[in-house]
Structure formats: C-alpha cells, structure tokens
Amino acid sequence: MFPIHRPRRLRANKTIRRMVRETSLSPDDLIYPLFVTYGTGIRKEIPSMPGCFQESLDNLAGSAKEIFSLGIPSVILFGIPERKDEKGSGAYDEHGVVQNAIRVIKDAVPDLYVITDVCMCEYTSHGHCGVIEKGDVANDPTLELLALEALSHVTAGADMVAPSDMMDGRVEAIRLVLDEGGFPAVPIMSYAAKYASAFYGPFREAAESTPQFGDRRSYQMDPANRREAIREVALDIEEGADIIMVKPALSYLDIIADVRDAFDVPVAAYNVSGEYSLVKAAAQMGWIDEQRLMMEVLTSIKRAGADLILTYFAKDAAKILNA
Ligand code: PBG
Q: Residue 202, Cβ neighbours under 10 Å: how many?
C-alpha cells in the first residue's frame, strides 16, 4: 500500500477537491417551510426557531418572491387557523388559512411550486392528527377528512399535497379523491417513514399543534425501527405516492440510505425544526460555526440519498450556494 497509495493527493487544493467531490447541493434540492397565520400585518419570529416566522397572508407575496428569487423552487405550507375544533374543520375550509395562502402565492409567483402539508393536528382542538375515538386517533374516519383537506388544497391551486398524519391507507384515500375531483395529474409526496420524534418540539410551538393529551406514538413510527421503514414506504408507493419522505433526517440517515437503495422514486428528507434549533442555539452560544455546520448537515442528508430536502435553512443555504 503505502507509499504507492496516498489519498491526500486528491485533497491537496480546493480545485482538485471540487473535481472529485461526490455530493453537491443545489438550491433546486430545497423546499422551504412556511407558517401561515390568520390576521393581518403579522410577521412573528418563532422564539425557538430564530429566522423563521409566522406570517399573515398580506406578507406572503413578498416572501414568495424572495424565496423564488433565491433559486428555491418550492415551499411547503403549514397553517395556523383562527379557530380549532374537535374535527379540525379549518383544515378543509375552502377559505381556510392555507387555501387562501395558496391563492395569494400562486397569484404572486405562479412558478413557485406550492406543496401543502396535509394533516389535522394544526386544526384540531386536541392537537392530534385525526378524529379522536376512545382516547386514540381513529384511523378510517380520519381518512375522509384528510381526503377533503387534500382536495380543498388542490382546488385552491396547490401543485402537490404531502400527507404527514401517518394514518394507514391515507395515500390511497387522497389519490382516489383527487382523481375523482378531476386532479389525476397532481402528485402526492407522502411522509412515508415519519417517526415519533422529540425533534418536532420547536415546530409544535411554531404551528401551535402540541397534542393536549398523550403523544403521537400510536400513529408515528418507533425511532428504534429500521426495517419497518421499508414496509411503510412500500405501502405508500403501492397506494400511489409519487415522492416519499423520511422524517426527521439527521438522526435517520440510515433510513434515508436504506430507502434510497430499495426504491426508485424520488426521496425527500425533512431536516426538522429541532435539527434547525440545535444548530441555531449552538451558534448563538458561539460554540460552532453556523454556516459550516448548516452546509455539512445538508450535504450529509443529500449524501445519504435524499434528492430533496425540506429545511428551514433553505434561504440561508441558497444564499451561500448562489454566492
Ligand atoms: C404535522 C407535522 C409535524 C411536522 C411536520 N408536519 C409535527 C408533528 O408530527 O408533530 C414536524 C416538522 C418539524 O418539526 O419541523 N403532523
């Protein structure tokens, strides 16, 4: 071996490193999450997610233009409705906060690709992702509401829907209702392997969607399970998912790699709120180099096999990639 083989030869300067680099990030890979709230004139920073905001409709056109001009092709929308109830009726209201946001964004920037998160937890008074029966989320009755929600988003102009609830059979239920509703060409990105994770903590503050009792372990996956992710993804693809997602990303790079290996559909990974907050908090303490850590995190998610990354870092990363 040595001295014939010297791997350092290909690391000697930045040009050769650039030439042999295996993974590259592009703004094309990024999807930026937006939190849309009711009211007007609102742009409220989320305390645990510095640099991220709850925004009212009147601020969305400006945000959409900024995002698209950075080269980011897509946003995913989350809604904070004025009123919540047992059945989450704000989720499938034709004039709900997300439905209105879709119209505003598509009007302002028609080419910005609008994805919507399809779930009940932001709209239910109890904060769970579906209808409650006997103290737990009832699967099949929830499917009808999710299908209504997806159809209302697409009717308002959404380009793609992304169910994040983890009910069994929801991809098929949504596919059927979209096809019947005249939208056979609208794709579904399913949160296929979504784990019951403590990394969602800051998001629940941002989306005001913390469950009022219990937790989500009866529907989201057990973080200890690896093989089960393959089964979940296979089911969603059979049901008609066009893109599948692994969530969270950073503690689940093995899952991303497994899924990339096993299937040929595009793979998305969600670099979730807690992953963002950890980096931001350590940077605020002066303990790490924020920009380098951000790019390293995103690169590792791409290297593991993700084609698309949903990330609160999208704007900051795009600025660096465009520089
Ligand atoms: C809704 C939903 C959640 C996230 C995305 N969609 C929260 C949850 O399941 O509790 C989390 C995103 C993040 O933490 O950034 N079900």
A: 23
